[in-house]
Amino acid sequence: MLAGYLETYSDHADQLPTRWQRGFSQMQAQTTRMQNLVEDLLLLSRLEIDSPNDDRDAIDVRSLLESIVDDARGLSAGHQQIALQIDEPHRLLGNTKEIRSAVSNLVFNAVRYTPEGSHITLRWKPWHDGAAIEVEDDGEGFDPVHIPRLTERFYRVDKGRSAATGGTGLGLAIVKHVLLRHDAQLEIVSRPGMGARFRCVFPATRLVADDEGSVPDSSAMA
User: Fold this and answer.
1) CA–CA separation, 5 vs 67, rounded Å?
2) 19/111 same-domain check
3) Contact 127, 100 (CB under 8 A)
4) What is the CATH number of the domain that holds 108?
5) Contact residues for 168 (Cβ-Cβ < 8 A; gap 6+)
6) Are 14 and 103 part of one and the same domain?
7) For 6-26, how does the pLDDT look when each residue is reduced to its tens digit (9 = 90+)?
8) pTM of this prediction?
9) Residues in a beta bridge with 196
10) Does residue 91 belong to any structural domain of this protein?
11) Whether 65 contacts 133, CB under 8 Å
12) Helices 171-180 + 96-113 axis angle, to 10
């Protein structure tokens, strides 16, 4: 209800006294953050409670990642350079909405937490006998001591910076649970001043050949 009132009033925000406009903007930002938090909590609860769906989409990975990159560029507004690399085009068996949610969380985190001028790469490539989706950036990075706890609910490497970006603190927990439901795992590599890489590793059983390529064999290494 509050969000509805604020949206209505926003059409006339320029008519508010100057001293009220800052407070109005803060209310809008906090309301949006609370909406995002509730949505993420509901999604995480569903991922934890529901049994994985036996129905598997043959996900067009190229199309999915291109769409996510477009969204990320919109969020970045030109502050970072965002690239996409597809090493071998084939399809991933899984729930399209869940995979989109997981990868979007990783890419949007990179946009939110890397400084202006950083480079972010979203990559799909063969990995051992399966394949991997990677999100890599050349931002500030973080101490590896944080890695074991990054997928915990509300865990933050930098609380001040995370609060400023409007994140809910649930993104990596969602990623972890989506990957578990897809027989996959999350690998994280980072060091201060050396950026970060988040790799979603999928087994060969989750890959199918498509018209443009084939499933990578066990000798395919990156």
Assistant:
1) 32
2) no
3) no
4) 3.30.565.10
5) 33, 36, 37, 40
6) no
7) 566 565 566 666 666 666 566
8) 0.77
9) 137, 190
10) yes
11) yes
12) 150
